[in-house]
Amino acid sequence: MSVSLSSLKNEYGREWTISDAVSGGWYAVRRVLLPDPNNERRLSNVRCGRTLEELARNLAEERGLEATCLADAPLRSSQQRVS
Q1: Cβ(18)–Cβ(8) below 8 Å
Q2: Which of 13, 15, 23, 54 has its CA 20 to 30 A from that of 62?
Q3: Which pLDDT band holds residue 29 (cuts at 50, 70, 90)?
Q4: Which of 32, 3, 5 is nearest to 18 (CA)?
Q5: Which domain of life is it from (predicted)?
Q6: What is the spatial distance between Cα 4 and Cα 72, in angstroms, rounded to a whole number?
Q7: Where are the domains of the chain?
Q8: Residue 46: its pLDDT value, please?
Q9: Nearest Cα to 51, choosing from 29, 28, 25?
Q10: DSSP assignment letter at 21
Q11: φ, ψ dihedrals at 45, nearest 5°
Q12: How far apart are CA 73 and CA 77, in angstroms?
């Protein structure tokens, strides 16, 4: 599967800044960095790939992890909500 930079930016560009690395390969940095407690959930602020295809796979994996974290997050009861 061939992935172009423009298609990757169209898919992930709202959440990630995507650039080529100086030493080769590609990286993506979250536009809004996650706080440290999210490290327990295995979420990343930076994802890398040797190729755009690998970076696309890594970003898709990250999106899946985010969805899992949201699904596993306990809902706040009305008593726990802050006014």
Answers
A1: yes
A2: 23
A3: very high
A4: 5
A5: Bacteria
A6: 33
A7: 5-72
A8: 95
A9: 25
A10: -
A11: -95, -20
A12: 12
pLDDT at 12 over 60: yes
State which amino acid sits at residue 78: S
Contacts 24+ apart (CB under 8 A), 62-69: 63/12, 65/41, 69/38, 69/41, 69/43
Indicate the angle between helix axes 5-12 and 52-72, nearest 10 degrees.
10
pLDDT digits (tens, 9 = 90+) for 37-63: 656 678 899 999 999 999 999 999 999
Residue 28 in this model has a pLDDT that exceeds 90: yes
Judged against a pLDDT cut of 50, whether residue 83 lies above it is answered with no
As a whole number of angstroms, the distance between CA 27 and CA 50 comes to 9
* The 26-30 sheet, strands edge to edge: 16-20, 26-30, 46-49
